[in-house]
Amino acid sequence: MGVISSEKYILTLKSLANRRVVAVFFLGFASGLPLALTGGTLQAWMAVEGVDLKTIGLFSLVGLPYVFKFFWAPLLDRYALPFLGRRRGWILGTQLALMVLIVMLGFTSPKDTPLLVALIALILTFTSASQDIVIDAYRTDVLREKERGLGAAVSVTGYRIAMLASGALALILAGPLGWRITYLLMAGLMLIGTMATVFGPEPEETVRPPESLKEAISGPLTEFFSRPAAWAFLALIILYKIGDAFAGSLTTAFLIRGPGFSIGEVGAINKGLGLMATIFGALYGGVMLARLGLYRSLMIFGILQAISNLSFMVLAYAGKVYSIMVAAIAFENLAGGMGTAAFVAFLMALCDHRYTATQFALLSALASLGRIFVGPPSGYLSHEVGWVVFFFVTFLAALPGLALLYKMRRNIHSLENLQYTDDKHSSP
Q1: What confidence category does residue 427 fall into, taking pLDDT thresholds of 50, 70 and 90?
Q2: Who contacts 180 (Cβ-Cβ below 8 Å, separation ≥6)?
Q3: pLDDT, tens digit (0-9, with 9 covering 90-100), for 180-207
Q4: Which domains does the chain have, with CATH numbers?
Q5: SS3 assignment, position 83
Q6: Burial status of residue 405 (CB atoms within 10 A of its CB: 0-12, 13-18, 19 or more)
Q7: Nearest by Cα to 362 from 179, 219, 243, 163
């Protein structure tokens, strides 16, 4: 058994260099790049230009296409462009459109033409969300079962690096170069994604797409709910990272208003160290997933996510202690990155390749419900019971998901076995 595990570990490391995993990494970068350009970076530009706060606040609504992208995902499952295959054609089309839209946004003025900026930003987020749909589908279709953990990890890594480029790097460049040049450079970075799309491989498995738009809409739901334990799978998707989301919703506020760390300290350690820990955790989690399997990875990483919340409870009790702060942030982001790699691999394993775009969009939207709805109760709870009790409650919030995961261990193992069989048959 140890020999087999070692062989799987070596094969996983070798897969870092194959075309499928490399393409997924750079497509993860392309997926993450547009996000800040219509979010934090655009808000910073508007603030510098003197746009009023009410208008800046309203601009957050341009991000709605990311939430509702599952509505048009069936179109991308049903129809294909006449070049580069079923998924890559759409990816390239959206990437070229994104480059044009980013350039157009750079030539606008948030102060003089706010409505035009809002319109371009909305079209940009719609196009970016569409790119996300087909990239998620392509990643699920092209990766073999044994590569999915690592594929999820490198995709998360590429995404985070891109957010750093279009966020922190863009703000640094905007000072000496100006906003127009900065946005032109960001548009140029999309070429990384287009190269990955053009030279990326096609999936080995040939899958019949839906024969009609009706099938593309109803087929994903019919197929999913025909499975044993379908509702339990949906509950697990919601609950698995709920404790992590619960604690994460107020982490920054806690560090500033709880122990009393400065904004600069929080920015440097929470964002800088946190980003590096997340990337390392995702990559390490992807490698370990090949050795441990899907169920054991989900369980071990889920337990670590829950325990990491307790590290903030310790910090809340100890007060302003830098060593505990660094340890808590590093641990939380490391565990979160590992859990994310396993969770994305889990979502990929749940998708039928006929309906990958729609099913992944729906399942990922369902997974985001926890992050959306924990915010209001988090603020109320922390105010009423204090930070120590709050973080203990976030630890308890993670336990139902782990209990459900344990109860569904046979279903997860069956899912792994099915994916392994499919992978064996599809391999040349």
Answers
A1: very low
A2: 106, 107
A3: 999 999 999 999 999 999 998 888 777 7
A4: 15-203 (1.20.1250.20), 211-428 (1.20.1250.20)
A5: coil
A6: buried
A7: 219
